[in-house]
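Request:
Um, any thoughts?
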Amino acid sequence: MSGRSKEVWGWIRYMAAAAAAVFLITQSAGLSRVSGQSMLPSLEDRDILLVNKLSRYLDEPSCGDVAIIASSTLGYRLIKRVIGVPGNVVEIRDGIVYVDSQALPELYAVGMPEDMEAQRVKPGHVFVLGDNRDPGASLDSRNPKLGQVPSGEIEGYALLRLLPWGGIAGPLD
């Protein structure tokens, strides 16, 4: 092989490696911007989040995860907290969220949600709520327009808030 051929092949290998690296990075992490007040007090309008996209391939959603959802029903993205996973029974009584008859200790939530009859989370779905629980403050699984979210619509999970810098409140274990 001539010197010129080696140089061309070197550039081709370099470009292929760079393209593979960009693909892996964009498929494993990303950024998302919060829009609206539905996740107050944990997240505010215009906060920028670092998103872990890789977990959606490696693990099932867990209660307490802050998920970025590409809703096919609504046609836009939402940021909500996973409250129930398949098989859980979610209910709201007297402003308290219950999962499988256990009250959730939600220090991250504000507001007084309206009561909601118990509903079992369907296979392949999650039940999500915004942290702002006042009536009308969050379009989430309580609303029939969204309902329970297919797990496949989860694009990733918020790792941390980049701007302004800080963590994201999570559930008490």
In short: The chain has a mean pLDDT of 89. The helical segments are 3-28, 55-58. The longest helix spans residues 3-28. The two ends are 63 Å apart (CA to CA).
